[in-house]
Amino acid sequence: MIPGVDGFMYPNEVELQWSILIVLYPYITGLVAGAFILASLERVFKVEAVRPTYRLALLTALAFLLVAPLPLQLHLGHPERSMEMYLTPHRSSAMAMFGFVYLWYLTVVLLLEIWLEFRADIVRLSRTTKGLVRMVYRALTLGSQNVSPAARRIDDKVGYVVTIIGIPSAFLLHGYVGFIFGSIKANPWWSTPLMPIVFLFSAMVSGIAAVMLLYMAAMKVMKRAVDMRCVDTIAKYLFYTFVIDFTLEMLDLIHRTYEADESFRSLDFMVHTRLMVSQIILQIILGTLVPLTLLAVNQLWKFSEAVRRSMYTVAGAFTLIGIFAMRWNVVIGGQLFSKSFLGYTTYKLDLVTREGIVPAIGLMLLPFAIFFVLIKLLPPWPEAGAGLKQEPGA
Amino acid sequence: MDISRRDAFAIGGKLLMLASVGATLEQITGAEPAPDAYKVADHWWGMIVDVDKCIGCGNCVRACSNENAVPKGYFRTWVERYQVPEGAENPRVDSPDGAINGFPPATDESLKSFYVPKLCNHCADSPCVQVCPVGATFVSPDGVVLVDETYCLGCRYCVQACPYGCRYLHPEKNTVDKCTLCYHRITRGLTTACCENCPTGARQLVDFKDPKDPVHEFLRQNKVQVLKPQMATRAKVYYKDLDGSVR
C-alpha cells in the first residue's frame, strides 16, 4: 500500500504534477478579467452608478495581472527556459498561446487604457510634484504634455475603442485559461466545452466581488462615505453574473450525473470523499449559496445602509473563498483520481518549498502591495487627485 | 630557409590539388553510408503485447530501469495485475512498485487473473505532443514519441494530457521523462531492453514499415486491441486478448 493512495493508481500518477501555484493562476487571471469587465460596465455600457469604482477596477486588474505569470514561472521545472514559449511556440499547444494572450492584454488593453484614463492626472502631477516623484510622472507622460480639451476628447475616444477591444480580450484571457483545462480529453473532470464559459463567468463573479470589497475597504480606510448607489449596483451585477455562473456549474453537474459515463462513479465518489470540504462545503454551500442568498434578498427587500454594507461584505468575502475553492477543485481535484478510474491519491501541500503554501500566500499578497503602490502613484479618486494638486500651494 | 611568395603559392596550390584528389577518392570509395545504416524513413515502430503470455515476473521493468537509469519510484514501463470478478465490475488491480519485483501471491485464486504490461503507446496522434508549449516532445519520423530534455520547460502539461499515465517529471533533471522505446538500441538494430528480457516473448518490438516483420501476420491472425481506443490517439501498442476490464 502506498500512503495516501486508495485503490489503484497508475504508478506515475501517485504524485500530483500541478500544485497550489497552478490553482492561483486561474484565480488571479479571473480576478483580472472580472475587474476589467466591471470597469467596462461604466465605460462601454454607460452604467454611471459604478463610476466611483472605474479607476479602482482598472488598477486592481493591473495589480493582479502583473502577478499572474509568477506562479507559472515558479512552477516550471526550468524557469530559465520560459522565454522559449515566445520564441518557439508550438502552434498546436493551448498553453503556448499564454504569453501572447497575456502580452496582448497587458500592453494593448490594460496599460493603454490606464494611461489614457490617467493621462491628464499624470501631466498635472508631473508639473506639481518635485524631485524623484516628478521624474517618475514625467516618464509616465511618455513625452505627451497636451491635455487640452481637444486632446482629452481624443483620449476618451481612443479609450472607448480600447475598452471595446478589451472586453473580448478579457473574455479571451480567461476563457482561454478554461480551455487549457477543458481541452484535455484524457481527464474527464476537466474535459468539457463548458469549462471556458464556466471559468469566464466565475472570473467575472470573483473580479466584481474583489473590486466591491476593495472599494468599501478603501472608503473605510480613507474615512469617506461609501457611495451606496454604486455598491448596490455592483451587488446587483454580482448577483446576475453569479446566477449565470451557478446555473452553468449546475448544468455541468446535472449533465455529468444524467449521462453517467465511465468516469462518473469514480468522480462522484471523489466529490463525496476527498472533495467533500472543498467542493460541497466551501465551494457550493459557503461560497455560492450563502452569497447568492445574501445578494438575492437585497434584490427583494430594502435594508438599511449599514446592514447592506455588512451583507455585501460577507457576500463578497464568501464569494472570493468560493471561487478559490472552485479553482482548487478543478486543478487539484482533477489530479486526485486515477485515469484508470480505479483509485485516488492525496495532495500533500508543502509548507516552504518552491510550490508550498508560503510562496502561495506571498504571491496572493503581492498584488495588494502592487495595488497599494499603484493607488499612491495614480490616485483613483478625483478628490484625492485634487488634494495632491493643492499640495504645492499649501 | 627563405620561402618566397611565389613558393608559398606553389606549395598552397599543390596542397589544394592533393586535398581535392583525396576528397574525390573519398567520394568514390567511402562517401556512401554503410548499407546497414539506420534510415528513419524506413521504420515505423510499435509493440505487440500478448497478454496471455505475460507471467508478471517484472523482468521487463527491471531491465528498463537498469537500461535507462529510471529514477526510483517512477516507471517507463510497469506491469498491472488484474483480478476480475464475474461481470468485470470493480476489478482488483495492483502493481506494487510497478511490479519491479514481480507480484505477491494472488489474494483470491477464484478470480479471473492476468497481467498487463504497460508502456508509452507511442501514439501517432499523441495528445502529449499536441499540448507541449514549445514542441520539446515530438513524434520522431520513425514513430517514436520522444522528449528533448534540453528544451523541455518542465510545465507538465503533457503529463496531464497523457491518458495512460506514462509520463513523469524526472526528479533530478526537472524535465519530463518517458519510454523512448529504447531509441538508442533500436536505431542500432537491437530490440528494446524490456522485449529482450521478457522470458515468454509476451512483448515484441515491431516495425510496421518492414514488410517482413511478423507483426503483419500477427495482426491478421489475432484479435487485438489498443488501450482506451475511445481516446483516438492512434496508439501503436497492440494487445492480444485484452480483457474489457483493462483501463
Helix content of chain B: 10-25%
Q: Structurally, how many domains make up the residues of chain B? A: 2
Largest interface, with Cβ-Cβ < 8 Å? A-B, 40 and 43 residues
pLDDT < 50 stretches of chain A: 384-394
Biggest sheet of chain A, strands in spatial order?
A: 1-2
**Any guess at the CATH architecture of one domain in chain A?**
Up-down Bundle
Q: What's the rounded overall pLDDT mean of chain A? A: 93
Largest sheet of chain A: 2 strands, antiparallel
Task: Describe the model.
- The complex is a heterodimer of chains A (394) and B (247).
- Chain A is mainly alpha-helical.
- Chain A has helices at residues 20-43, 54-67, 69-75, 84-87, 98-128, 131-140, 149-182, 194-221, 228-259, 264-272, 276-300, 305-331, 333-336, 357-377, 382-390; strands at residues 6-7, 343-344.
- Chain A is built from 15 helices and two strands.
- Chain A has a two-stranded antiparallel ribbon with strand order 1-2.
- The model of chain A is unreliable at 384-394 (pLDDT under 50).
- Chain B has two domains: 1-32; 40-128 and 138-240, Alpha-Beta Plaits (2-Layer Sandwich).
- Helices cover 24% and strands 19% of the residues of chain B.
- In chain B, a hairpin with a 7-residue loop joins β2 (77-84) and β3.
- Chain B is elongated and about 95 Å long.
- Classes of the chains: A mainly alpha (394), B alpha+beta (247).
- The A-B interface holds A 7-13, 15, 17-18, 72, 75-78, 81-82, 84-85, 88-90, 92-96, 98, 180, 184-187, 334-335, 338-342 and B 74-75, 78, 80, 91, 93-95, 97-98, 118, 127, 129-135, 151-157, 159-169, 173-176, 231, 247.
